[in-house]
Design brief:
Layout (H helix, E strand, L loop, with lengths): L2 H7 L40 H13 L4 E5 L2 H9 L7 E5 L4 H11 L5 E5 L15 E7 L11 H11 L4 E5 L4 H4 L9 E5 L13 E5 L2 H14 L5 H11 L2 H21 L3 E5 L9 H7 L6 E6 L4 H9 L5 E2 L9 E3 L11 H7 L5 E5 L5 H12 L3
Parallel strand pairs: 2-3, 2-4, 4-5, 5-6, 10-11
Antiparallel strand pairs: 1-7, 6-7, 8-9, 9-12, 11-12
Helix pairs in contact: 2-8, 3-4
The chain binds ligand P1T.
Length: 383
C-alpha cells in the first residue's frame, strides 16, 4: 500500500462482531473470562483495549513499523523510551528540543543517573566526539521545536551504528509526521510522536505514540507501557484514529500554507529572520530537501524589534491565529516560546541556542492562506 491508502486502511480490519467500519469505543476497563486465564484476547484495558489496538496498528502502518504503541501523552511516550535505559547510561540529544522533553531529561531522569549531552546536529559529524562506551540512546528531533533545525537521520544513524549497533536511535517525528519523512526507513530504531499534534490533528486530545520495527524492542516497550501504565484511553484512541485517516490531506495543505507564510515573512520589513526548512537560506535546506517530501506547517521567525513588548504586541493582535501552546491542529496557532512552551529551559541555555524574546512560532493551519496572511499583516501594524 502507498502512504495515502495506508493512513486509511493500514493494518485495519472491520470490527468482527458487527462489521462496523470504524472500531467502536470499547469503553470498558476489563473483559470477562470463561475460566481463569481463558478469554478472547483481552483481559484488562491497561494491557490492551480493542480501540487502542486498532489505533496502535494504524500507528505501526503509517511509520512503516511492525509495532505501534499509544500513550497518555507525548511525554509519557518519551518516558517509556528512557525507561529502556539503566543508571550510568548516556544519552546524546539535540540542543534544540521541546521544552518539556528537555525538562524530563534534566529534571526527572538525570537524578536517576542518566547522563545527557546536548549536541548541535546541524552537522552530523558533531556527534562523533560525544559517542562513548556508555552511550545507549541518541535522541533526535527534526525539524526541531522551535528553531526548525534539521538533523540528517540517515547520516547520524550510520555514524552511531558503525560505533555500536546496539545504541538506539530515536526520532521525535512530531513536526514532520510520516507524510514528510520515515525515520525507521532511514535506519532509526524508534519513532516517537506527540500524537496530540498532527496525528490527532484537531486539538481535541493529548496522546503519545511509539513505533518500532524490531520484535524484541517492541516486547520491551510493551512491558513498560503495561507496567508503568501511561496508556491512551479508548475515546482518545478513537479520535486519534479518525485523525490519522486524514493526515495526508491535512499535511498537504499545512505544507502549502506554511510555505506561503514563510515566503511572505522573509520579505517583511519588520522581520529579522525566518526559520523554515523550505527556504533556500535555511542552513540545512539541502538535507531537508533530500530527507523530507515537503517542508511542513511550522514556521518560526524573529522580529527586528527584539523587545518582548514587540512580540507581545504582534501576538495580542492576531485574530485568525489563536495564541496558544501546542501545534499541528487544523486551526492556526501562535506561540511565544520564551514565556510559553520553552519557559522550562533556563535562560542561559535558551540564549545560547537563540530562543530569544522576539522569537515567535506559528503552527500554520489549513485555513485559506489569504486570511492567514491578512491576519499577520494586521498584527504587524501594532509592532
Ligand atoms: O504535549 P505532549 O503530547 O506530552 O507532547 C510533548 C511533545 C513532545 N515532542 C514535541 C516535539 C512536542 O512539540 C511536544 C509538545 N509540544 C507542545 C505542547 C508545543 O506547543 O510545542
Amino acid at each position: 500500500m502507498k502512504f495515502n491508502t495506508k493512513t486509511i486502511h493500514g493494518n485495519q480490519q472491520h470490527e468482527p462482531a458487527t462489521g462496523a467500519v470504524m472500531p467502536p469505543i470499547f469503553q470498558t476497563s476489563t473483559f470477562a473470562q470463561s475460566s481463569p486465564g481463558k478469554h478472547k484476547g483481552y483481559e484488562y484495558a491497561r494491557a490492551a483495549n480493542p480501540t487502542r489496538t486498532a489505533l496502535e496498528n494504524a500507528f505501526a502502518a503509517i511509520e512503516n513499523g511492525t509495532h505501534g504503541f499509544a500513550f497518555a501523552s507525548g511525554l509519557s511516550a518519551i518516558d517509556c523510551v528512557l525507561r529502556l535505559l539503566n543508571p550510568e547510561d548516556e544519552v546524546i540529544a539535540g540542543d534544540d528540543l521541546y521544552g518539556g522533553t528537555y525538562r524530563m531529561f534534566t529534571r526527572l531522569f538525570a537524578k536517576y543517573g542518566l547522563k545527557f549531552t546536548f549536541v548541535d546536529f546541524n552537522d552530523a559529524n558533531n556527534i562523533i566526539k560525544h559517542l562513548t562506551e556508555k552511550t545507549k540512546l541518541v535522541w533526535l528531533e527534526t525539524p526541531t521545536n522551535p528553531l526548525m533545525k534539521i538533523a540528517d537521520i540517515k547520516a547520524i544513524t550510520t555514524i552511531v551504528k558503525s560505533k555500536n549497533k546496539n545504541i538506539l536511535v530515536a526520532v521525535d517525528n512530531t513536526f514532520a509526521t510520516p507524510y514528510l519523512q520515515l525515520p525507521l526507513d532511514l535506519g532509526a530504531d524508534i519513532v516517537m510522536h506527540s500524537a496530540t499534534k498532527y496525528l490527532g490533528g484537531h486539538s481535541d486530545l493529548v496522546m503519545g505514540a511509539l513505533m518500532v520495527k524490531d520484535a524484541k524492542l517492541a516486547e520491551e516497550i510493551h512491558f513498560i507501557q503495561f507496567a508503568a501504565g501511561a496508556v491512551a484511553g479508548p475515546m482518545d484512541s478513537f479520535l486519534a484514529l479518525r485523525g490519522v485517516k486524514t493526515l495526508h490531506i491535512r499535511m498537504q495543505r499545512h505544507c502549502e500554507n506554511g510555505n506561503s507564510i514563510a515566503k511572505y515573512l522573509v520579505k517583511h520589513p519588520k522581520v529579522k529572520e525566518v526559520f523554515y526548512p523550505g527556504l533556500e537560506t535555511h542552513s540545512s535546506f539541502e538535507i531537508a530537501k533530500k530527507q523530507m517530501k515537503d517542508f511542513g506547517g511550522m514556521v518560526s521567525f524573529k522580529l527586528k524589534d527584539e523587545s518582548q513588548k514587540a512580540a507581545f504586541a504582534f501576538l495580542e493582535h492576531l485574530k485568525v491565529f489563536t495564541l496558544a501552546e501546542s501545534l499541528g491542529g487544523v486551526e492556526s496557532l501562535a506561540n511565544h516560546p520564551v514565556t510559553m512552551t520553552h519557559a522550562s529551559i533556563p535562560k542561559k541555555e535558551r540564549d545560547a541556542i537563540g530562543i530569544s524574546d522576539s522569537l515567535i512560532r506559528l503552527s500554520v493551519g489549513i485555513e485559506d492562506s489569504e486570511d492567514l496572511l491578512k491576519d499577520i499583516e494586521t498584527a504587524f501594524s501594532f509592532v
